[in-house]
Design a protein that fits this description.
transmembrane helix; membrane; transport; CDF_Transporter; Cation_efflux_CTD; 295 residues; 4-stranded mixed sheet
């Protein structure tokens, strides 16, 4: 079983455990801020389920209907996660308003606060795993899930501090204000997740660092060619698509030009695992005398 899929499945189990702990903390304290924190965890579980389906679908090999693979499915899951985060923020704002209008006392409960703190620790540890696996395997769905959990941890710590202040000061309005701040933080996270996912769906180019690496590899391993130009890149989940024009001497044989292309493709593939490289070979008179000079 693919590591990404195992981690995605694990997120569902972790999410359900944390959800139960946070609702228990709310039940023991009656804090609307802790309730808002629990609501956000519902989104964590839903996003984890979406990530499982996305990772499963994205791992399917290319077929006749999807010759470039299914990797972009993860971006759709990430967008869905972002939308669910926004919906969670709306629910939190509603809970904060109702808590303000119908102010109720917050009960000091060491077990309740401890339960929420432990849930935050579990989330933090799992977020680190999600981000590490997501980045190493270039999985947008797992990275989005991990970033959401990081926000959840920060939210939980802030809420715990705030609920402690409510208990100490007796200012119950702080409970609703804390819930509203949680909502704003969740809303911002949702926007960031959606923004990054849309960039992937719009075939955003690889980072400048990655493009610089590709240019260096072409220059280093293109011995026999004259230049390369019109380099284009795009990212689709784990895959980096690279295409460019390679200018070779007019008298060069097809076999020799093909060998040069193979060398470049292997070098780029080693630096960017899973990269798809397309090279258009052109004769000398097509040179633009700009772009990538072959060493």
């Amino acid at each position: 079983m693919d590591l990404r899929f195992k981690v995605a499945l694990g997120s569902i189990g972790i999410g359900l455990i944390v959800l139960a702990m946070k609702f228990a903390a709310y039940y023991l304290t009656g804090s609307v801020a802790l309730y808002s924190d629990a609501l956000e965890t519902i989104v964590n579980v839903a996003s984890s389920i979406a990530a499982v389906f996305a990772v499963w679908f994205a791992s399917k090999p290319a077929d006749s209907n999807h010759p470039y693979g299914h990797d972009k499915a993860e971006y759709f899951a990430a967008v869905l996660v972002g939308v669910m985060i926004v919906l969670a923020a709306i629910s939190i704002f509603r809970a904060a308003w109702l808590g303000y209008v119908n102010a109720s006392s917050v009960t000091y409960s060491l077990s309740g606060l401890g339960m929420n703190a432990l849930a935050a620790v579990i989330n933090g540890a799992w977020a680190a795993i999600l981000l590490r696996v997501g980045r190493s395997s270039r999985s947008p769905a797992l990275v989005a899930d991990g970033k959401h959990l990081v926000t959840d941890v920060i939210t939980s710590l802030g809420v715990l501090l705030g609920v402690g202040l409510v208990v100490l000061t007796g200012w119950h309005v702080l409970d609703s204000l804390l819930a509203a701040l949680v909502g704003l933080n969740v809303l911002w996270t949702g926007w960031q997740v959606v923004k990054e996912s849309i960039s992937g769906l719009m075939d955003e180019a690889a980072s400048e660092d990655v493009q610089a690496t590709i240019k260096d590899l072409i220059s280093e391993h293109g011995d026999g060619a004259l230049e390369a130009h019109d380099l284009r890149t795009r990212i689709a989940g784990r895959v980096t698509f690279v295409d460019f024009h390679l200018v070779v001497p007019g008298e060069m044989t097809v076999d020799t030009a093909h060998d040069i292309c193979d060398r470049i493709e292997q070098a780029v593939g080693k630096a960017l695992p899973g990269a798809h490289v397309t090279i258009h070979v052109e004769p000398e008179h097509k040179a633009k005398h700009s772009g990538i000079v072959v060493l």
